[in-house]
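Protocol step 4 of 6: structure prediction from sequence.
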Amino acid sequence: MQPETASPATASRNDWQTIRSLLPYLWEFKSRVVIAMGLLVLAKLANVAIPLALKQIIDALDKSHGVLVMPVFLIVGYGLLRLFSTLFGELRDAVFAKVTQRAIRRVALQVFEHLHSLSLRFHLDRQTGGVSRDIERGTRGIGFLLNFTLFNVLPTLLEIGLVALILLKKYNAWFAVITFITLVIYILFTLFITEWRMVVRRTMNDLDSKANTRAIDSLLNYETVKYFGNEQYEARRYDHNMEHWETAAVRNQTSLALLNAGQSIIIAIGITALMLLAAEEVVRGKMTIGDLVLVNVFMLQLYMPLHFLGFVYREIRHSLADMEKMFRLLHEHKEIADAPDAGVLQIGKASVRFDNVSFGYEPDRQILYDVSFDIPAGHTVAVVGASGAGKSTLSRLLFRFYDVGQGSIQINGQDIRGVTQTSLRAAIGIVPQDTVLFNDTIYYNIAYGRPDATREDVIAAAQAAHIHTFIESLPLGYQSMVGERGLKLSGGEKQRVAIARAILKNPAMLIFDEATSALDSQSEKSIQAELRGIAQNRTTLVIAHRLSTVVDANQILVMGQGRIIERGTHYELLAQQGAYAHLWNLQKQEEKIQLAD
């Protein structure tokens, strides 16, 4: 795949946009920024004054100027200037540290919160490894950009300006001219080569993100890899990405060597020309030995910042490239957003209404067609049907992970698009079909339903979900780790944790999306009574494949190809001898076969 390249004008515009995005974070500590800049100027003034003091000391000790006298005052001043040039720099770093770290924290938090505000569609399409690496590089780039732009680029330019001014005032104009020409050639060469290298760097970043995504995806699916014995296949796929990364990395390193060599040649020629000119002036008696040392020290002092300036510029460009990807996440469109006048959902005893709802995940993939039904307050409505009929889509729409294409969903007469997402989701609890747990303790995962719950509440929820005894049997009890995505627990144990979490949340509405699908028949029967208990007096939507779990529902909806094809109670539907009765008979036959085995 060819890397994307931008024109210089576009890249420059993007860089300025990235830099402007940081400015608001700096103004939180205006006084610290001002103090740091003041210390920066003082440090550079002290640094430029050091060669001037050294010239005076050397001239004072020069025998040709008469009787030698120990220039104690000058030597002490020289020592103090050395101290101040370092001390002011360290104080500057200490003062500015809070500005940098707070900016990193604020941006990282903003990106994190924005990612959580994006729609389910974005998160189904994203690659977790690549996104995490983009954020990691972007936050690291913020620290580098702030510190090195303010404390290396600006001070270096200030020092170059001061040195050029001193040389122009005190000596032959050619000293300033040579310094200026060397600087211009150096900067132009650095800009040209660095812009060329940025294409390689961007390619490296893309390949690095892809390799990281591949590795994380493979490790998250560790069991699947093992099931099929595909360790070597996964290794080859990962190495294929790393092979391309290696090629880009080699190009990056060799081009860096070329850049460094070119910079060294330019600086060496400039310093040689200056020293030849200074030596000639000394021979002609127009400059003293102290002046020669002054010019030499100035050049040595400028050599390192100039050489470092090339490195800093490269890294700033790299940081901007890294930050650009991270800030691009902030510009991801929020597909689902609160309306400007959105209010808090007035819940009370919730009644739910799906009114002629049509929906498709993609324009050419319609899932639901004119679905209408009511769940009266405190009632239980079950939805059954074959896989792919659109059952689970109902719960996603009720949670407003997506907005309906046509029609509306109302709770107590309020269109859910007109209330805040926070208040909507606070009113609904769910036990999903595929329970994914955080890589933390069992206690944490249950308490996630209500983080401010007491330990007694958490234990009570675990008891209601029939998992307390199992937890207590573990060596670490509630502090046992569940592993990545809960892989240390069985499917049934994870489902019970999810049920306990929903019980603890104590919502007005409940959704059971295949809530007992991972349980064996005995466990399913033991927990059904508890599910009925917690669903009592709550508005409940049950999505089920096993019909035996929904026989007590107030109403059962049978879905087929995105439409409700039958509705009624269990006995009414059996009497109709339609699709529901057919599914019921099939499942009864399966149960008989299993019992016979």
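Step 5 (inspection) to follow. The beta strands are 352-362, 365-375, 380-385, 406-411, 414-415, 428-431, 509-513, 539-543, 555-560, 563-568.
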